[in-house]
Write a structure and sequence with these properties.
By secondary structure, this protein is mainly alpha-helical. It has one domain. It is built from eight helices and four strands. The strands form two sheets. Strands 1-2 form a two-stranded antiparallel sheet. A two-stranded parallel ribbon has the order 3-4. Helix 2 runs antiparallel to helix 4. The longest helix is centred in the first third of the chain and has 37 residues. It is globular and about 50 Å long. 31% of the residues are buried.
């Protein structure tokens, strides 16, 4: 996909609508759920294993920028494994962390990233810089997914493409879904993906571990 096609979705009007949805839903989430859920999760994390409540990692943002992405800590502290992707039955995942990851609750602190403005509720998932660099070598036009803000959720995640990316095809299909989302963005599309993600929090996801 050319940058010309992508840029059609990056008008001031569209970006303003998307930003309004981001702020309205994120602030609403904190008012309705976050104020009581976050302290409970924080307490469970501290009781389960030593270490900080939040896990902070540098991720790639819009226009290949870099930002600190926030998550609830779901693993034991091991600095040498910080860049190692989580695998199924990963021994680093704590008991509480396994529940948080299964329900995607570990991703909720990223609403702070959304409110601050370096993420959106919906968009391509942010990866660490090393992964972006490696994927760019494999897939032509991979940088185009960074023409929009990364999201807490996205079309690829709604389609079940999350977790390990051991197979090159998995990376490619995620990229194609990300670009499809960018090309066909609409308010209804965003709301639909937000609704699918909300249901996953309660039902769980077999690819979340």
């Amino acid at each position: 996909m050319s940058e010309v096609v992508v840029s059609e979705k990056l008008t001031w009007y569209n970006l303003s609508i998307k930003r309004f949805i981001d702020l309205f839903c994120s602030i609403g989430l904190m008012i309705v759920i976050g104020w009581w859920l976050f302290p409970i999760v924080a307490l469970l994390i501290k009781l389960d294993s030593p270490g900080p409540i939040f896990y902070v990692q540098s991720r790639g943002g819009i226009y290949n920028s870099m930002f600190n992405c926030y998550k609830f800590r779901s693993m034991t502290i091991s600095h040498k494994d910080d860049l190692k992707q989580a695998t199924r039955n990963d021994p680093r995942v704590t008991k509480v962390g396994r529940i948080l990851r299964k329900t995607s609750i570990d991703e909720l602190p990223q609403v702070f990233n959304v409110i601050y403005g370096n993420m959106s509720l919906v968009g391509p998932r942010p990866l660490i810089l090393a992964q972006n660099k490696e994927n760019s070598k494999i897939i032509e036009g991979y940088e185009n997914r960074h023409l929009v803000k990364p999201g807490i959720t996205g079309l690829a995640q709604a389609k079940g493409y999350r977790g390990e990316t051991e197979l090159p095809n998995s990376i490619y299909f995620r990229f194609k879904l990300d670009m499809y989302y960018i090309k066909h963005w609409s308010v209804i599309f965003d709301l639909k993906l937000i609704w699918i993600t909300a249901k996953t929090i309660f039902s769980g996801d077999e690819n979340a571990y």
